[in-house]
Amino acid sequence: MNDSVSFFEEPEDTREEILKATYEAFCEHGYSDITIQKISDKFPKSKSLLYHHYDGKDELLLDFLEFMLSQAEEQFPLRTGEGADEHIELVLDTMFLSGGILTDEDFSRAMVELRAEAAHDERYREYFTRTDRFTSRHVEYLIRSGIEQGVFQEVDPEETAAMFQVMFVGTATQKVTSNESVLEACRSEFERYIRNCLLRDDTDAD
């Protein structure tokens, strides 16, 4: 597991130091076992500072999630670009492979635990609703870009992005909640869908 992520390498203030400690404790212990004490064990300053900024672990975790989402929004601005067909391969790698914060197994396991909390905690449900919209919006923009470039077929971008979003959540859950290895077969079938239903055959351009 990585000890940190790029935007935590050099925390700029106490809040970022706390959130870095939260990230490390979250990956190590998951949602069910994380406590203020375990976050404090990763925090280089006094435990009392945690309580000065936050009332409890859920308030701290929600701020951590908001920070992660804001960093993602800053690092992945909506824009069209070249090579949407190549970009879709990067999306597939993010979905199915391991490595990096989005696919780190410890982080993914903790996030799946946290998503389960959204079943009965409206605060987490609201957060995951916004992150799902964020992901779908970027995939939808990629699909529209590919159609404009002439490399994707005339599919419905919103419906296609919705399918990708469900696949993101499903593969992340499968990786950390089952010993049954079905992702290789799933990727093979999903790639077949992309070849047959999304990518535009060169002869279609005639």
Automatic annotation (TrEMBL):
DNA-binding region in chain numbering: 35-54
Highest taxon above the source species: Archaea
InterPro entries: BetI_C, Homeodomain-like_sf, HTH-type_TetR-like_transc_reg, HTH_TetR, Tet_transcr_reg_TetR-rel_C_sf
Location of the HTH tetR-type domain: 12-72
Gene Ontology molecular functions: DNA-binding transcription factor activity; transcription cis-regulatory region binding
Keyword annotations: DNA-binding, Repressor, Transcription, Transcription regulation
Keyword Transcription appears in the UniProt entry: yes
Pfam family, one: TetR_C_6
Keyword DNA-binding tagged: yes
Record protein name field: DNA-binding transcriptional regulator, AcrR family
Organism: Halovenus aranensis
